[in-house]
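Attaching the record inline, Q. Sequence:
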Amino acid sequence: MHILITGAAGFIGHHLALRLLARGDTVVGIDNLNSYYDVGLKEDRLKRIFALADTHVVGAKSPAFTFKKVDITDRTAVEAVFAHEHFDAVVNLAAQAGVRYSITHPHAYIDANIVGFTNILEGARHAKVEHFVFASSSSVYGANTHMPQSEDDNVDHPLSLYAATKKANELMAHSYANLFDLPCTGLRFFTVYGPWGRPDMALFKFTRAILADEPIQVFNQGNMIRDFTYVDDIIEGVVRVIDRPAQADPAWSGDAPNPATSYAPYRIFNIGNNNPVQLMRYIHALENCLGKKARMELLPMQEGDVPATAADVARLGAAVGSWPKTEVEAGIAMFVNWYLDYYRHLLPLKF
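Structure, as predicted:
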């Protein structure tokens, strides 16, 4: 397949590109390489993709991976990407991430997650892409406290603008599935972690602070539960979904509408570990891997956050098959090994 990945220099995008190249697909990646976090980390991810692509050349001159520095909010630039080649599938992972950042920088989320998303949808529509896969988020569940969280649940009460934009993405994709018969699948990611992750995520910040003998900020007094999902498990699910374009549900009824399916070629899936754990277990696993105890600063709940997430993944398993999930202790160990290697030049000599 020939696949476009937006946000290819991002955490999930870079892992997805590696996986698709390894199985023989050709990939075009776009990213604006913005400074929301360390651009050097993004560039190093791209180097890994290019290194693998060099061993997977298709034909005499066709590159397995092509990168274009494109901001998805730039309509003309996005149109040019779609004008120059045809894609079998598009995976939209480009977005302004972060719940807390959305409180202080709302326009960044409207620009990237609404305007940019529209530009990618339009490109996929006019290019008659066979499958449009996009990243949603567990944050759409918002004030709904039903557990485990199911695609059947109400998601009309987001607690942050970030969550609201992800909910909007789902609605926008459905309209394109309806109007233009564009197969669309949305994936609600649950707390993804692992090597090459984002520095603004908890595991990254905890690791850096513990090694520096600084306190870690633990919100809601540590009474948090998360469905932490290792990045390789996420990628397995994404790849399986790519290969199965959304189809209309013949049993769908407007009298009792199912929000996860449709009369149009549209699907919404949770993609998580399906084994939520307490934040303290997560921290203790990290302490064990680092061989150091954390000094914890226990704080109230952050604005826009939720106390618990738990993914019901039965619908995804029924659609694409189930697969083994990584336990947090194993996943954290793999992250720590990567972190200590990647940042070795910044660490004390004993590491």
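The longest strand covers residues 131-137. The CA atoms of residues 31 and 333 lie 29 Å apart.

More tomorrow.
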